[in-house]
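FIELD: query
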Amino acid sequence: MSEKIRVGLIGYGFAGRIFHAPFVDAVEGLELAAVVERRSAHSKEKYPGVNVVNDVRHLYEDPSIDLIIVTTPSTDHYAFVKDALLAGKHVVVEKPFTPTSEEADELIALAKEQGKVLSVYHNRRYDGDYLTVQELLRQGMIGEVRDCTFSWDGFDPVMRSTNWREGAQPGTGVFYDLGVHLFDQALTLFGIPDAINGDVRVQREGAEAHDFFDVTLFYGNQMKVRVKSSKFVREASPRYVLHGTEGSFVKYGTDPQEAALIGGAMPGDRGFGIEPRENWGKLNSSIGSMHVEGVVETFHSSYKGYYDNIYKHIIGQAELNVKPEEARNAIRLIELALQSSEEGRTLPVKL
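FIELD: result
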């Protein structure tokens, strides 16, 4: 394989257009070579050099395509990833990895058999606020963590959407869509919990998929992490709240990259991924012999880092950052939380 990795993108909907194509295009070693669009050719307007095809088999059968990115609905991830691996391609798949951990295990085993790279697009590891929290913990700036809450709330109380995410199929709903990100962050920051207690519901009239979750992860007797989301939060709540033995960190707002991309910005544009000062998190802590209270500048971030890592890993220059086993563990936590919610009890975590 040459140093240039040729990429085939399955799907040019919201995820493909906003979260994948711009960042693939921004990585020097990656070439967006082909896009599957069944009824249009919109990708060619932005990327004139791409080959637009209407059937995924064109990607599977093209020997020049090295890496396939799957951005289909999550209900179809298993089939597309399996076919791409069997075709001898490296694969990146949108989150959530698969609706079940059993399917994830099968795909991980297949990737190993094929000798191919498999990764899940947990781009929120490259959110500036998450990276800031990660560094705060690394430096021990709030001491030993005791209590955390990660929230992804909003106000959307009336069910109007016909999007596939709102359907009743496995892998749909806010728990798989947003909860999987929060689980991935908790697992990356703190490791595998000892126990889990879930409250997962359908709250909106006419809704089929879960639209509320409030899940607590227990780490021994001293620390717990709560992840939650509701469609009935009109007054914004903090995105991250962390309390430790030396102090607290509270952060409002969301990473600016998604809004910028929707507005037409591209990676590399001036100011891309830089959060305004008014959204910086507040730290109130003891550092050494001093009491410190003030704001912490949010790290400058870019989802380009995910595809930088994919490229370097494929050519043998870096360890894979988002491993499929890690993405699988987040799916397993979802399964356990759903079981906990149904049974009304706290469950031990056995991944």
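FIELD: remark
The radius of gyration is 20 Å.
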